[in-house]
Amino acid sequence: MCTAIRQSGGASKTFARGRSPGNRIMSKRILHVVSNVAHYADPSQPTGLWLSELTHAHHIFAARGYEQQLVSPKGGVSPLEPRSLKWPHADAASKAWRADKANAALLAHTARPDEIDPAGFDAIYFTGGHAVMWDYPDDAGLQRLTREIYEHGGIVSSVCHGYCGLLNTKLSNGSLLVAGRRITGYSWVEEILAGVAKKVPYNVEQQMRERGARYEKALLPFTSNVVVDGRIVTGQNPQSAKATAEQVVALLSLGAPAHV
């Protein structure tokens, strides 16, 4: 599968959290964000975390020896999007994750934002699924984690609808994190083609543009597309999860981009 990678911003030589005071290499730490929402506005229509958006990234980070933790707006259970568990969306990685009891426990017992010290993480990664359109955008706890991780030199990343979590995050100077930044995420065309445009609460692509983000998307829907703008890494859709995580790894390995 071909992935479009659009990148801007140079990289510094070192990453602030790369070494301990004793100059020992430290393991990077990734904070995954997942949803607590289990259905659309109509309770009879289930939704939740799109599992592969977590499992593909988790696998990439685990292969590098990174420590990983899950957080959700309310803590506790993160429901799964039923469609993500069926063919053709449920791949080997997703099936293996569900078969592992330890992994299942991670999704049953996620932390709350107020239980997380953002100073301990090198990157935050927002997973998607339509569920996040309800509980990500206005969650003050997630906004605090995102702001503090970014402002201490960390990476902010998202995949698919995960960019809903970036919509309203403001930096300490009061500016929106996404204003003027190159961003991608699930497009309105993809919402229409997926048959859910009438079920979602808003057009997140439009919302991003209204906040001053420079939204970009692939020419072909449902193809892998990743945009890197400094220390903000965003993937367009479920097909982009692996490549998004790989770009986060690249930044952590080579050093965080210097421009903010």
TrEMBL record:
<keyword id="KW-0346">Stress response</keyword>
<keyword id="KW-0456">Lyase</keyword>
<dbReference type="InterPro" id="IPR050325">
    <property type="entry name" value="Prot/Nucl_acid_deglycase"/>
</dbReference>
<comment type="similarity">
    <text>Belongs to the peptidase C56 family. HSP31-like subfamily.</text>
</comment>
<feature type="region of interest" description="Disordered">
    <location>
        <begin position="1"/>
        <end position="21"/>
    </location>
</feature>
<dbReference type="GO" id="GO:0019172">
    <property type="term" value="F:glyoxalase III activity"/>
</dbReference>
<feature type="compositionally biased region" description="Polar residues">
    <location>
        <begin position="1"/>
        <end position="11"/>
    </location>
</feature>
<protein>
    <submittedName>
        <fullName>ThiJ/PfpI</fullName>
    </submittedName>
</protein>
<dbReference type="Pfam" id="PF01965">
    <property type="entry name" value="DJ-1_PfpI"/>
</dbReference>
<dbReference type="GO" id="GO:0005737">
    <property type="term" value="C:cytoplasm"/>
</dbReference>
<dbReference type="InterPro" id="IPR029062">
    <property type="entry name" value="Class_I_gatase-like"/>
</dbReference>
<dbReference type="InterPro" id="IPR002818">
    <property type="entry name" value="DJ-1/PfpI"/>
</dbReference>
<feature type="domain" description="DJ-1/PfpI">
    <location>
        <begin position="110"/>
        <end position="250"/>
    </location>
</feature>
<dbReference type="GO" id="GO:0019243">
    <property type="term" value="P:methylglyoxal catabolic process to D-lactate via S-lactoyl-glutathione"/>
</dbReference>
